[in-house]
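stage 2 :: seqdesign
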């Protein structure tokens, strides 16, 4: 026999026998130490005895007996638990680095974001009684009383018979007299609120609003087809067009790029000013930003991401009006979902919020968002580009719902041409020519804007030169883009600038 084999067999016998021998010696010499090393920590059960009630159980009984009487078993169990806890802690540390501290379990949302559009309709009358010119002058007589309503204050007008002088005393608004009609609890997919209806004016309003809860547990990113990301609660997200870099905040523009972008925006603004064209920029957030609470666990480097930095920069360094309604679309989810669950796009409720914010920037009349939410009707959404891109089976997903606001139904409109250049004529009396250059997100703006202008033109980028005359004749020019196409807008602006600089023959 070779010497190597001898060493191997000897080592093996020592390994098997020595613990048993030491264990037996310990049992005979030091019973206390033996007991302390035998029992596992907090172990309650009795060790298996060598009792054979049934011949069929012999194997099991023997196996359990050996398990329970292994040398140093208590010490070994303690050691294993220490190792296991240690590796568990390493895992927990790694996961919490991805998911944050795990203590933030409520969706962070700016509930005041929609205030410009009427907020959540919680107003309950004016508290300011205004001037207190309560002259007790007997010469003044009450000549007029306007009673307050739920939301508007009234007044009493007093006039002096001799001098004709007058003054008014305001009467505070009454506030709504609401009846509780619905209570919702906050969950991972629903907001908490109390819904009231005013018995005087019929107004619907909400109180005690609680944002959705956020599931901060670790969810490993899983994708399909190279474009589709599986999120929480059946939500799907997009990873094409470098969307994940926009989400993680890893593709910020350099100072130089920001300055270049701003220079182009400013040049376009100046050309529009010269021609009396109102210019607006609308950057629509990627779905991954608006519904980040349903995203799987990715490491996000900064909350101040590429397009937010860009739009902030443009507002500071140019004269342009620049919209990036991230906070509004997150808050707007209180009423209805603002993006399609299985689609990269916002839905018709998101589009309505976009239109209202645009009108607000334009100084146009807007609709109170709580009223608009009541006017919206649900219907099954057929938007599912993320299911198609992922090569998934649509029948395995629950139905998604879209919400169309029944906006100005009295206005009729007609379609003269369709994509990539869509021209609409409507029975609106507004003769200003409205031209929008954008991408597929404009489809959710069309049902509303079209009813506010007699002539509207929606063109996809790269068709600018084909619409040269329209751009030159526009009264209002809106440059729309989804966040991930900010680079395409940079290109498109070059064409728009060229058209406006060289437009006139
Ligand atoms: Zn009321």
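stage 2 :: out
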């Amino acid at each position: 026999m070779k010497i190597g084999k001898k060493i191997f067999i000897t080592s093996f016998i020592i390994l098997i026998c020595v613990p048993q021998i030491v264990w037996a010696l310990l049992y005979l010499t030091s019973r206390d130490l033996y007991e302390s090393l035998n029992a596992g920590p907090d172990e309650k059960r009795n060790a298996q005895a060598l009792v054979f009630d049934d011949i069929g159980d012999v194997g099991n009984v023997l196996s359990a007996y050996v398990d329970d009487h292994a040398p140093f078993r208590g010490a070994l169990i303690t050691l294993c638990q220490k190792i296991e806890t240690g590796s568990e802690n390493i895992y927990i540390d790694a996961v919490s680095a991805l998911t944050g501290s795990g203590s933030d379990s409520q969706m962070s949302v700016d509930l005041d974001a929609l205030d410009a559009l009427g907020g959540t309709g919680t107003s309950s009358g004016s508290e300011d009684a205004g001037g207190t010119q309560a002259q007790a002058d007997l010469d003044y007589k009450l000549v007029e009383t306007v009673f307050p309503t739920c939301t508007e204050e009234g007044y009493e007008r007093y006039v002096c018979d001799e001098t004709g002088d007058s003054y008014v005393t305001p009467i505070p608004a009454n506030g709504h007299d609401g009846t509780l009609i619905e209570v919702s609890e906050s969950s991972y997919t629903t907001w908490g609120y109390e819904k009231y209806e005013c018995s005087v004016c019929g107004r619907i309003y909400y109180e005690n609003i609680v944002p959705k809860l956020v599931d901060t547990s670790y969810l490993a990113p899983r994708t399909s087809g190279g474009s589709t990301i599986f999120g929480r609660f059946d939500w799907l997200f997009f990873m094409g067009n470098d969307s994940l870099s926009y989400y993680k905040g890893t593709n910020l523009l350099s100072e130089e790029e920001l300055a270049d972008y701003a220079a182009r925006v400013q040049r376009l603004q100046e050309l529009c000013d010269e021609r009396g064209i109102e210019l607006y920029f609308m950057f629509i957030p990627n779905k991954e930003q608006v519904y980040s609470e349903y995203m799987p666990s990715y490491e996000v480097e900064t909350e101040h991401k590429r397009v937010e930095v860009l739009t902030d920069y443009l507002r500071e360094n140019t004269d342009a009006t620049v919209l990036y309604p991230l906070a509004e679309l997150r808050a707007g989810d209180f009423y209805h979902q603002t993006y399609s669950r299985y689609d990269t796009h916002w839905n018709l409720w998101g589009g309505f919020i976009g239109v209202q914010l645009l009108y607000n920037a334009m100084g146009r009349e807007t609709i109170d968002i709580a009223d608009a939410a009541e006017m919206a009707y649900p219907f099954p959404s057929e938007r599912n580009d993320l299911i198609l891109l992922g090569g998934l089976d649509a029948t395995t997903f629950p139905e998604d719902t879209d919400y169309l606001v029944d906006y100005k139904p009295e206005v009729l409109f007609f379609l003269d041409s369709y994509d990539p250049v869509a021209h609409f004529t409507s029975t609106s009396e507004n003769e200003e020519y409205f031209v929008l250059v954008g991408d597929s997100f404009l489809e959710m703006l069309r049902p509303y804007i079209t009813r506010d202008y007699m002539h509207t033109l929606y063109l996809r980028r790269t068709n600018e030169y084909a619409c040269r005359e329209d751009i030159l004749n526009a009264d209002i020019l809106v440059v729309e883009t989804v966040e991930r196409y900010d680079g395409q807008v940079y290109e498109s602006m070059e064409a728009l600038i060229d058209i406006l600089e060289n437009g006139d023959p």
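stage 3 :: structure notes
- The chain has 15 helices and 18 strands.
- The longest strand covers residues 140-146.
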